[in-house]
Amino acid sequence: VRDTLGLMALEAETWPAYTIAVGYDTSKPVNVMTQRAEDFLYSPVKGDAPDKFEGGGGEAFARFVLEELKPYIEATFPVDAQRSFLAGHSYGGLFASSLVARKPEAFAGYIIGSPSVWANATLVGEVSKTKGAGRPIYLSVGEKEVFDTINMVADADKLLGALTAAGFKVTHRVHGEQTHVMEPNIMFAEGLRVLLAKPKAN
């Protein structure tokens, strides 16, 4: 993402931006996938092992982002608080979608890639009932993100319908030949270009 923004800074058509990434301290023993589930899922889902569930800390993570991280960024860097965006892929895309359903006004726009809609059966309905007010959202998925019991292309299409019905301004892409692992590379580059685009002169 950093390299993408660096190259985008050379283009006159997009605004410059800071990118803040939230990660984990891998110098300590940590199961990153388990921690991602804990932070990004508002409700637990069944894990790999019998009687094991993962996730459920989405509300706490949202409070951290909105009440600690976002105010810190705004106090530390010369950013426009009215033009901050949230981006997430997979579970991160689900988290962003969940925040859209609960507090769409939290960010000026959203980049949602390959959202794990399958992990929250009520998400699409919740999104359709919120107020988009023309807020921009970039939504994408890879063409090859279709698995035995999960069709992320179809799920993204359902989310698209809910976002559109709620009044968001959605840019939707299905990237040909792209897998779940490769999709983030295109998602961030194209999503940032859409949300950071300068108004075209008449």
Task: Describe the SSE topology.
Layout (H helix, E strand, L loop, with lengths): L1 H7 L23 H9 L4 E2 L6 E2 L3 H19 L8 E5 L1 H12 L6 E5 L9 H6 L7 E7 L9 H14 L3 E7 L7 H13 L7
Parallel strand pairs: 3-4, 4-5, 5-6
Antiparallel strand pairs: 1-2
Helix pairs in contact: 2-4
Summarize the structure.
With 202 residues, the protein is an alpha/beta fold.
Description of the molecule:
This protein has 202 residues and is an alpha/beta fold. It has helices at 2-8, 32-40, 58-76, 91-102, 123-128, 152-165, 183-195; strands at 45-46, 53-54, 85-89, 109-113, 136-142, 169-175. The relative contact order is 0.14. The radius of gyration is 17 Å and the shape is globular.
Q: Strand order across the biggest sheet?
A: 3-4-5-6
Q: How many H/I helices?
A: 7
Q: What is the gyration radius calculated from CA atoms?
A: 17 Å
Question: Tell me, what's the shape?
Answer: globular
- Residue stretches low in confidence (pLDDT < 50, at least 5 long) are none
Proportion of helical residues = 25-40%
Strand content: 5-15%
Taken in chain order, the helices and strands follow as: HHEEHEHEHEHEH
Structural class assignment = alpha/beta
Biggest beta sheet summary: 4 strands, parallel
What average pLDDT do the residues reach? 91
Number of strands: 6
> How many angstroms separate the termini?
31 Å
